Amino acid sequence: MTAAAWLDELDPLVAEAVDPVATEVDRAATFPRAAVDALGRAGLLGLVSAAEVGGQGQGLRAASMTVERLARSCGSTAMVVCMHYAAAAVVEALGPRAAREAIAAGRHLTTLAFSEAGSRSHFWTPVSTATRDGGDVRLDAHKSWVTAAGEANSYVWSSRPVGAEGPSTLWLVPADTPGLKVAGPFDGLGLRGNASNPMSAQGVVVPSSAMLGEDGKGDQAMLGIVLPWFVCMSAAMAAGTMEAAIAKTIAHVSAVRLEHLDTRLADLPTIRAYLARMRCTADQARALLLDTLDAIERGRPDTTLRVLEVKAAAGEAAVEVTELAMRVCGGAAFRKEAGVERHFRDARAATVMAPTSDALYDFIGRVVCGMDLFG
Known about the structure:
This protein folds into 3 domains: 3-109, Butyryl-Coa Dehydrogenase, subunit A, domain 1 (Orthogonal Bundle), CATH 1.10.540; 113-215, Butyryl-CoA Dehydrogenase, subunit A, domain 2 (Beta Barrel); 219-368, Up-down Bundle (Butyryl-CoA Dehydrogenase, subunit A, domain 3). It is of the alpha+beta class. The longest helix is centred in the middle third of the chain and has 38 residues, at 218-255. The protein has a 4-stranded mixed β-sheet, with helices on one face. A hairpin with a 2-residue loop joins strand 2 (129-133) and strand 3. The protein contains 12 helices and 10 strands.
């Protein structure tokens, strides 16, 4: 199935499985289990798995467009799927066939477990440990944020190397491994239903075969696989959030009348100017996303710069657009009548995810100044 064909089928699937639960997911901060299960049954969780293991065989472009569409309806569901695809890309490249087949079949939700207070935006240099325990390996860690914590079937887990030189090593840790603990439930500002909670590993023992790739070379997978996937899908999520906010703002100003002036809000030049700014900002961010995908697919010389730019640019654009949506919709936005208040919160939640905009700006500055990226 082509990416275009899949996207044609996505709209009715979202209308049936995601839209009906989106409001409650945000209101009660509940994980969108029914929606995720429906997406799995439809083959969406296996979108980026290879055809040889039963998946759809799609790549980053299809994943990004899928996340963008989901974000128009439910940011929490979009973030869960975003992190699933980022982790699935690692498993597809480095993981065992059984896990790849389970993901492809849509019965296995995976996610990343990278974030730690001790490493912050430098997620490729974890402080958690991995030590030999006979023929197995013991993992000890305090992860600050894990999307779908307690809901995923497995975690692509980072630690310091067992014995090799290098900044990190990756592991595929089943969710039912003894010693894994989740601190929750999540009750935050935005993306309230994605179960982003702290996790700890206390004497978690996994077989040596759980290692993904080589000991000490986890940073290569983090930066070579995860980073481009995560930043592009994060930008896609921002794009979807902006589209939803713009559509709801237009609906509001087109419907609301100023009786004493016998006119609609949309008839006021100042309102239209705000909408124009929102439209231009969203289109600029999406254009950069599409150009970044093109750069990655073609291996262009500016790929590194585009990868560093896309999340920062789209994330900041989403903050600006949703701020304008709140301003234009006025009191109705604060009463949730216009439906833009959730997008306002979701856009801000996304900006704190590592690598943050501030960290990315530093990296971008290094690139444009011809400096070592990690010096």
